[in-house]
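Ticket #4471: structure export looks truncated?
Reporter: QA, pipeline team
Priority: medium

Steps to reproduce: submit the single chain below to the structure queue and open the exported record.
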Amino acid sequence: MAREEIVDRYSRLARAAMTGQSVTGRDSASFDGGCFGAAGYEDTAALPDGALRASLGCGNPVAVADLHEGDVVLDLGSGGGIDVLLSARRVGPTGKVYGLDASPDMLSLARDNAAQAGVTNAEFLHGTIEHVPLPGRTVDVVISNCVINLSDDKAATLAEAFRVLRPGGRFGVSDVVTDDSVPDQDLRCRTEARIGCTAGSLTVTEYRTLLLNAGFTGITITPTADHGDGVHSAIVKAVKPPVAPGFEIRPMRAEDADQVLNVYQLGLDTGHASFETTAPAWETFSSARLRHLRYVVADTRTSRVVAWVAASRVSARPVYAGVVEHSIYVHPDYGSRGLGRALLNAFVAASEDAGVWTIQSGVFPENTASLALHQAAGFRVLGTRERIGCHHGVWRDVLMIERRSPAV
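Actual output as written to the record:
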């Protein structure tokens, strides 16, 4: 179903709710079974009837979003505003909640509901979830209730959620997901249509991969209701990696090439980072490293890349599928700010989300700062490879380090 059709459909539902009708975006059996709508909430006292009538979600993201006093929240696809109103209670007068919806009628309904509820710390925005009309690093929490599955560009939606979140921000949504292995695709499609998932749901693995590609870590996808044929409602949670104020950890991009290689060269120039002496061309650098599991720290005031981390496979053999070797470099002008530790912690979390069970590397014994950084992140020294290579005319030892995941 095209976006225009979806907007028109939900606009008609909003107009019905305005006239006092109870509306559903799905078949009545799903609602009667308590899978969708206001039945998913326990704290609806004092909410306007219009918000309850237009509740079309598949869960209660507010209950799992870990909202705090003073948080700034964005609800993707806010509909009649029930999750905005509930969030506004949680964040209190020092917080704020944005509701974003593509339907002008839904926005009118939501604004009326907010006025009836006396909510003054909410603002409703017109726009699409693929192009959020807010600046980057604006909100603390992104929530959504059974809306991301309606997007025809889910990668863009998740990338936008990452963009608008502040470092350390949380992503907590209710959505529809599908088992990775569903034998009958026709049955799956019919079930998705029955519950209103008109654009098709992501499988659990697809959802996790898109979240990783967007830059999220700490990903959990927990089924909450079984709709049959491998289709489930689920709570999806993730985190934008935390880092010191004024910086952001995000996936490495091709346009970062010159800055990444500059930081690389500055590290090589110290004589304690690698046996290499000259940073390679970008094509060589990129082809030797995994497309995922590469991140940078960027100065948010200048967009300058000041640190990076990336991983390479140690072997193409299937038995080593979860074993990688990594490198991490921090610009010498940006040391002692905790950037390396934050970046390495984010990399470790992302590697576990990606199913990596062992991260390994080699460190010169003289590079005590790197050794301390890695030990703080759970790496251990396995041993010393003595006089393994000649560097600037000196035969040098290398400490072999690794981190074994306790989770994977």
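Status: closed, not a bug. The export was complete when the record was re-opened. Leaving a note from the reviewer for reference: The chain has 13 helices and 15 strands.
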